[in-house]
What does this fold into?
Amino acid sequence: MKNTFQTGYVALIGKPNTGKSTLMNALIGEKVSITAHRPQTTRHQILGIKTTDNYQCIFVDTPGLHDDNSKAIHRYMNRAAASMFTEADLICVLLDVKRFNQNDEKILQRVSKLEKVIVVLNKIDQVTRAACLPMMKLIAEFAPGREIVPVSALKRDNLDRLETIIVAQLPPGAPQFPDDQITDKSMRFITAEIIREKLFRVLKQELPYSITVNIDHYKVESDLTRISATVWVERSSQKGIVIGKNGSLLKKIGTLARTDLERLLDSQVYLQLWVKIREGWADDEKSLAAFGYSDANPSH
Ligand SMILES: Nc1nc2c(ncn2[C@@H]2O[C@H](COP(=O)(O)OP(=O)(O)OP(=O)(O)O)[C@@H](O)[C@H]2O)c(=O)[nH]1
Ligand SMILES: [Mg+2]
It folds into this structure.
């Protein structure tokens, strides 16, 4: 009878917007990583930890791999994802069933020499079963010998089977984290991410890509959490857009973030948001490090 405890790092890798963060949240049953309908939402490696009596599965959500290396932040994001190729015990390559293209082929090529890889074909709720099967056949040509698991992260379809397949690949080993810990990230980090998620969802076009959020104060009082955060933009013209007419947009973003935070913290939240400019921060190594985008500190 098998009773050895299993522990391993399982990296969720893929092109932007394939549903990596949605899948990780669904697998651990908690929202630790933000999601949005736009690509390039996730910027850091984020751990989502699931512990049972028999195993500890440490999922690693990663930024979407992409070809745009124009700014320092893009290079940081690609490094954060690519480092998992060598560090993970198992790689899950996520594909969007409706958007399989050359960028996915490139990623499958990059992992072709690695030993433990499975392919997760996500968003199957968007196609008929009849359309899914030929996609699986096509993908099998680019990932010969690999298991291909069709799922819907959003509808939580076939996730039990995916988890069984993943767990079967975990190496024996002692747990790395306490059994009640679900992420490596602090509440400050998650708070900044929730605010960034609302910016991604509320602001139009390219603006969210010019934004980062920093928590200035975070204080827990008896039944109230006081949070003050700065939304950093790259140019002065962007400041007014984030604030909106008479402050309306910033107010909306604050309300949405506060509602999520109150649920998460199970406490009343007093949230103050400021908007400030740091010229060209996304292409400046020093600013990036100051805002926590640092290879030396990937789990900030
Ligand atoms: N219909 C459908 N939509 C999904 C599914 N999984 C994720 N999505 C949606 O796809 C979009 C992107 O999801 P994310 O989880 O943010 O994708 P990601 O791969 O983490 O994206 P990046 O962090 O930008 O690389 C969101 O709007 C999700 O709601 C799914 O199974 N079905
Ligand atoms: Mg993501």
